Amino acid sequence: MAKKMNVLQKIDNGILQVKELQRKVEQNTIIEEKAIQLISECRFKEAMKLLERK
């Protein structure tokens, strides 16, 4: 029974890690999309600042 609980805990930890990675990917995607928009408006310095904070 203890082994089963240990396996379930590892699965839960893995799920939490995946969710955190998904959140980071989504956040980076939003930043990159904003930077692309700034670049298309020839606002290169603002885009660079945005990407440097990423």
Structure commentary:
By secondary structure, the protein is an all-alpha fold. Helices cover about 90% and strands about 0% of the residues. The protein has 2 helices and no strands. The chain has helices spanning about 1-40, 45-54. α1 packs antiparallel against α2 (about 45-54). The radius of gyration is 19 Å and the shape is rod-shaped. The chain starts with a helix and ends with a helix.
Count of DSSP helices?
2
Q: Approximately how much helix is present in the residues?
A: over 70%
Q: What is the quaternary state of this protein?
A: single chain
Q: Could you give the order of the helices and strands?
A: HH
The radius of gyration over CA amounts to 19 Å
Q: Determine the N-to-C terminus distance.
A: 44 Å
Estimate the mean pLDDT confidence. Answer: 94
Strand content: under 5%
What is the approximate shape? rod-shaped
Give the low-pLDDT segments.
none
Largest sheet: none
Structural class: mainly alpha
Count of β-strands: 0
Topology:
Layout (H helix, E strand, L loop, with lengths): L1 H39 L3 H10 L1
Give descriptors for this structure.
mainly alpha, 54 residues, rod-shaped, single chain
